């Protein structure tokens, strides 16, 4: 049974962190799930004075079911609450999924066909048919907005809650789709669908206008509005990004890939979740897409000059130089950000100039190369700080 499979997976995840045994028994007192899988189907259990028995009677399918926990402390009651609420949320998602499968399936099918296409010509004809049957105008320019979930660390339980909150998380993701669809900036011409385990895709349609800048400004506003609608979730942190706008359906996969790139850069360079914009990651995106000639002629020679005798790059010197550029060549603000004395910062900047031949104060090109070199290291050598 699906319910038993879920409960067994839940207890298996708990087994590594819970110091006592947990059994779940059906109405015939047969063990159907346990932190000790070898006990499944047994009918004899010994309940010690330290043990507790709770009822899992939350519906017709679990009538008479029990949870036996080998501990009678408040921790035991907390675990029972986790198991019970997780099971209820799981069943809520399962039942809701049966009712909504047809509607959700249509939009998810369109998204998958957009992003996993075979023969471009034949697939686009088929896709156009799907869009028209769904009442969507195939002639409008569209942009992909990508929303990615990140699990928040739980501060209450010393348990990996990919276990008990899986079902609750699924409930929230289903509710998130409905919340997004109700956003005031979205219309019946837009598609909202899950894509993979932790992403939701919004394919936003726009009217044909000559001023493309207005579309991107509007997309910023839409993304911010969606984030404000969703940020109250206490289980997920969210990142939102978008790609370029395209008029051909076959190009929308590019918009998705561009949004995915921005999200990936955001995880590396922007510690806070939320809206990750092209403005915030302009230099980082440029550094991630440098042509080899720029890397070989400008970036790598700079890094080679900063190598110590042991072959490692002097990252402290590079970090101070980068922060100096970021702070608009202001020594005082650089000192504050790096927690160094102003005179120490001055000395390090002078040393950087002497070693690399780059003077950020005299040339925008030198400042830009300094920033590119620092970003290049973090992108390609993530273990180096």
From TrEMBL:
Pfam families: GGDEF_2, HTH_30. Residues 123-264 form the CdaR GGDEF-like domain. InterPro entries: CdaR-like_regulators (IPR051448), CdaR_GGDEF (IPR041522), PucR_C-HTH_dom (IPR025736), PucR_C-HTH_sf (IPR042070). It comes from the Bacteria. Residues 317-363 form the PucR C-terminal helix-turn-helix domain. Belongs to the CdaR family. This is PucR C-terminal helix-turn-helix domain-containing protein. It comes from Formimonas warabiya.
């Amino acid at each position: 049974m699906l319910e038993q499979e879920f409960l067994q997976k839940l207890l298996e995840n708990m087994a590594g962190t819970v110091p006592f045994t947990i059994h779940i028994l059906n109405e015939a007192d047969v063990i159907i799930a346990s932190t000790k899988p070898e006990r499944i189907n047994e009918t004899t259990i010994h309940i010690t004075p330290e043990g507790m028995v709770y009822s899992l009677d939350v519906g017709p399918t679990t009538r008479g079911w029990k949870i036996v926990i080998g501990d009678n402390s408040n921790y035991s009651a907390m675990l029972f609450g986790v198991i019970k609420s997780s099971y209820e949320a799981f069943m809520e998602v399962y039942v809701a999924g049966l009712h909504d499968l047809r509607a959700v399936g249509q939009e998810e099918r369109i998204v998958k066909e957009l992003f996993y296409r075979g023969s471009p010509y034949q697939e686009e004809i088929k896709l156009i048919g799907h869009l028209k049957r769904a009442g969507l105008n195939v002639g409008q320019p569209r942009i992909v907005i990508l929303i990615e979930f990140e699990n928040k660390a739980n501060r209450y339980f010393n348990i990996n809650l990919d276990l008990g909150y899986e079902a609750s998380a699924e409930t929230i993701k289903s509710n998130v789709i409905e919340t997004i669809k109700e956003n005031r900036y979205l219309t019946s011409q837009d598609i909202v669908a899950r894509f993979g385990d932790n992403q939701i895709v919004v394919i936003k349609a726009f009217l044909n206008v000559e001023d493309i800048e207005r579309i991107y400004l509007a997309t910023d506003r839409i993304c911010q509005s969606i984030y404000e609608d969703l940020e109250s979730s206490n289980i997920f942190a969210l990142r939102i990004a978008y790609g370029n706008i395209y008029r051909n359906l076959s190009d929308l996969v590019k918009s998705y890939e561009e949004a995915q790139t921005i999200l990936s850069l955001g995880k590396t360079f922007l510690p806070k979740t939320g809206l990750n914009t092209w403005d915030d990651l302009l230099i980082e995106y440029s550094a991630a897409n440098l042509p080899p000639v720029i890397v070989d002629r400008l970036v790598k020679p700079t890094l080679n000059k900063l190598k110590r005798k042991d072959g490692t790059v002097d990252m402290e010197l590079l970090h101070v130089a980068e922060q100096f550029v970021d702070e608009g060549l202001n020594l005082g603000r650089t000192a504050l950000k790096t927690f160094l004395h102003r005179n120490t910062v001055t000395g390090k900047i002078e040393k950087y100039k002497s070693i690399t031949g780059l003077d950020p104060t005299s040339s925008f090109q030198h400042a830009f190369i300094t920033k590119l070199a620092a970003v290049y290291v973090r992108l390609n050598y993530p273990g180096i700080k």
